[in-house]
Each structure stands twice: as C-alpha cells, then as structure tokens.
Amino acid sequence: QALLVESGGGLVQPGGSLTLSCAASGFTFSRAAMSWYRQAPGKERELVATISVPSSFTNYADDVKGRFTISRDNSKNQAYLQMNNLKPEDTATYYCKAVGFGESPAWGQGTQVTVSS
Predict the structure, then answer these.
(1) I want to staple 82 with a disulfide (CB 3.0 to 4.6 A). Which of 20, 38, 65, 69 is the partner?
(2) Which residue(s) pair with 57 in the sheet?
(3) pLDDT, tens digit, for every residue of 57-88?
(4) Strand bridging mode 111-115 / 10-12
(5) Which residues on adjacent β-strands are paired with residue 97?
(6) How far is Cα 17 from Cα 65, in angstroms, rounded to an integer?
C-alpha cells in the first residue's frame, strides 16, 4: 500500500526558508510523478509544484516560481520542496502526492507551514 509522509513544516518569519520532505513507501517511487499541493484555511487545495519521471521536468505555480524548488532523490524514495523568501500568504498545510505508479494516486497527511512575524 502506497504511503507518503510529509515532514519539515513549522513556523518561520517572512523572508525565511523551509525544506519540506516527503518520504514514500509501498510503491515504486521512481515510477511516480511527485507533486506538492497546499491548502490554506477556507481555500481550495492548489498545486504548488510537480516533478515528472523519468526526465525530472519541473513545473511551478506562478506565485512560487523563483522561490520554491521541487526535487527528488529516487535512491532515498524522497521528494523535497525547498521554500525560500517565504511570505505570509504561503501559510497553509502542504501535501505531497504521487501519481502514475500503477495504482490510485496517493496523498500524504500534510505538514503545516506558518509564515508570521
């Protein structure tokens, strides 16, 4: 059974940085395209970034381009989201998602990111 576990969230001041991690198990990670989504209170869940396979092509939402970087380490079954120059509007619960590995899409449980002074 596919399992994703996010970590690395927390409280950070505006302009600060965080790196989120997504640990995968129960499926062939190298076959899965990985994405990060976020959901702020009262808002719909939105796509933040995607990294594909096998090319590791990346794509970003317009409001995080140049600030966030998605990456993956297939040897460790991990995906990452490096977030720099964080803004209060980045406050949300961040989720990772895996698709394309031969089963239904898998979601993690989320990790909270709060950007506040």
Answers:
(1) 69
(2) none
(3) 999 999 999 999 999 999 999 999 999 999 99
(4) parallel
(5) 35, 107
(6) 15
